[in-house]
Amino acid sequence: MRDTFSRCHPIINFLFFGLVIAYLMFIMHPVMLIISFLSALSYAVYLDGRKTLIFCLKFLLPTMCTAIIVNPAFSHEGITILCYLPSGNPLTLESILYGISASLMLGASLLWFRCYTIIMTSDKFVYIFGKIIPAVSLILSMTLRFIPKFKAQFEIVRDAQYCIGKDISDGSIFSRLKNAVRIFSIMITWSLENAIETADSMKSRGYGLKGRTAFSIYRFDSRDKKILCCLIFCGIYLTCGILAKGLKWHYYPSVRGVLSEPFTISFYIVYILFCNIPVFLNRKEDKIWRSLKSEI
Amino acid sequence: MKYKIFSLFLTVSLILCGCNLKKEKEYQGNINIPENGIVEKSVFSQIKEDNAVVTFSGESNGCQYEWTIFGNDIENPKDINLAVEIIEEPEQVLLDFKSDDYFGFSSVLSIHINSVWDCQNAVVYDSKNNAVCGASVTGSENTILNYTTLQTTGTFCIMPDTTDDIKSSVISTEEKEITTESTVSEPYTNQENYLTPAGKVSDNTVSEKNNSISESSENYGLIADNIISDENNNSELSDYDDRIISDGSQTEQDKYLTDPVPEGKPMPVEPENAEIHEQTQYTCTFSVECSTILNNLDELNPEKFDVLPADGIIFPATEVVFYDGESVYDVLQRICKENNIHMEASWTPMYNSAYVEGIHNLYEFDCGNLSGWMYRVDGWYPNYGCSRYQLKDGETVEWRYTCDLGNDVGGGYAVTGGE
Fold first, then answer.
1. What is the pLDDT of residues B273-325, one digit of tens each?
2. Whole-angstrom Cα distance, residue A263 to residue A259?
3. For residues B369 and A54, what is the distance between their CA atoms, to the nearest angstrom?
4. In this structure, are residues B107 and B148 in contact, taking their beta carbons and an 8 Å threshold?
5. B7: nearest CA partner in chain A
6. Domain locations in chain A as residue ranges
7. ∠ CA(A92), CA(A93), CA(A97), 5° rounding?
8. What is the tens place of the pLDDT at every residue in B51-102?
9. Which of residues 363-382 of B touch A (CB under 8 A)?
10. What single DSSP character describes residue B63?
């Protein structure tokens, strides 16, 4: 993976995603939503292009369309009445606009979480929270690993059972059921045993003990400092903006809000910079890499 | 260096533009009227500029009064004397405006009197004893009189509306052609019908009941449910009130959780049984108002100030045409569509009726936890849904917004079942 942002300090990664998702949830301003959505899309495409595009077409687009249709069907508030639905309630322009905004928010948050799962690996998560809340972070990391691990082990057990002729794919219904229960029982035993083993192993290594250090390859360097400053500045600026009602926007009963005040435009600029920190970082790194390559 | 310049630029723009935000209509609270009553021009200019909603409150002879002023109504700000001398007498309130000039904009005057008026509406009379306009009567514990006025000089008198001006004018014209038994020949009787239902109405009840029972047993073989055959009604207008009138003998809730209907009031007509005859047209007086919100501005959802009418009237009392067999809900829905008023309702199977959630974008719970829409027909808040109230010719339907579970509009009994 050529992504530079993922090589930054885990705290920077976590802070970035935390802030970006928090602002996405709290700001209903349409321009801000569009900015967030496009940034999330561009970063997700940068991270794994083909897969993201397939995800967008297969899953994201239908979900967003459903959200746009569902809102006006259930919400009838708004002063601009377009026509009347068969139920006798009005179809309003405001509810459609709100539906579009809500679907943008939904799409953007799905895309940001897609990026999050790629960047924030479980070792990064344990690195950040291992010292503060060791037990919880171990449990979290174990549960997150549980499903893929269980799936893999299931394959192994099933193959082994297949070899000795006790497969679930043939035989009478009764024998199939019997075999399935058998495999399930094996899996439960395995997972319980595995959990105890992991716990014992971690305990014997002194996990969570006072004064115990853990190896990590993460270093908080000057680049991380710069990014942290940038994040803090954008965070404070945007929070001030929300508190000063510079991003005020409401859809009901009439669409009202600030759109083109200089104050608000400054927020758009800051938000664009903020959401695109990883992309800018990657671009910059790519440029350096290319120039170095051309020198050779 | 680049970062520093950039952040400096942004900080400066934040400070410079912070005061440059677009003004939305907002409630700026209450201002006390000074001793001499004169509020300066600068105050009104500020209100106008802020596009604010402000209440000015004062006291006179133990009566609280309040002016609700919308900034966007003010055209030429000037010094205005807002003081009003109020003398409260039994069943009448005398007003003496201290201002010697009109304000130049209409505003709502709310008078909190220290007694309770048992009436539906009030009328404002000028010094020559001519009726000027109506006033709405609200208030949970003590009565609050709200009325909108442009004439802010001289003396006025507010009295309970016993004559039922609006209604009588409607009925007296219509009634002469149609009615037979429960005739309203003079303005007073209609009201009396509701105050003393025992006499005239109960006669009516008996005959109605016999009528419908015999009919239904013949035609449908059913015990008189709430089903009413309209066959007779079609041919002749004379039999115009064919609803079953409650005789007060009911003691339990019906299957749609409706408490016993008080004696003399019409029983609910299930919407699935109601037959609408478009060839028979009747009229009723219809109005939608929300003046209680003006007395509870601090509780109103700030986003709703844009849709709040300055005088609290969404649809003024108007004579409207409806078809035989239509319910209050059918009429409300049609009027809202015709007049392009927003209205949202949801069908509630449990009560077998539509529930009106919001009119004119003013929704339930928009003005406190106890707020919502209620309807009143000829002075009575029915204790069942508006889809089950079949309208009859000449009735007066009022949709009113309550901020206190019906208590402030005189309809608490419909919500609590009179407990």
1. 888 888 889 999 999 999 999 989 999 998 898 899 988 899 999 999 999 99
2. 9
3. 47
4. yes
5. A233
6. 8-120+219-295, 126-204
7. 125
8. 888 999 998 888 889 999 888 888 888 888 888 889 888 888 888 888 888 8
9. 363
10. E
pLDDT of the residue at A35: 96
Q: Do the Cβ atoms of B343 and B333 come closer than 8 Å?
A: yes
Mean of per-residue pLDDT scores for chain A = 90
Sort out which chain B residues have CB atoms less than 8 A from A241's CB and list them: 14
Nearest residue, CB atoms, B18 vs list A230, A244, A248: A244
Contact B306 A254 (CB under 8 A): yes
ipTM of the complex: 0.73
Residues of B in contact with A81 (CB under 8 A): 340, 342
- Greatest Cα-to-Cα distance within chain A, rounded to the nearest angstrom: 75
Provide the pLDDT for residue B418: 59
| Pairing relationship of beta strands A249-250 and A256-257 according to DSSP bridges | antiparallel
Query: For residue B7, which phi and psi values (nearest 5 degrees)?
Result: -70, -35
What amino acid is encoded at A171 in this protein?
Answer: G
DSSP for residue B388: S
pLDDT in tens, B119-143: 878 889 888 888 888 888 888 788 8
Interface residue A70 vs chain B (CB under 8 A) = no
Residue A77 with chain B: CB contacts under 8 Å: 342, 344, 358, 361, 363
* Closest-CA distance of chain B to residue A258, Å: 7
The residue among A71, A77, A254, A284 with the most chain B CBs within 10 A of its CB, best to mutate, is A77
Chain B touched by A160 (CB under 8 Å):
no
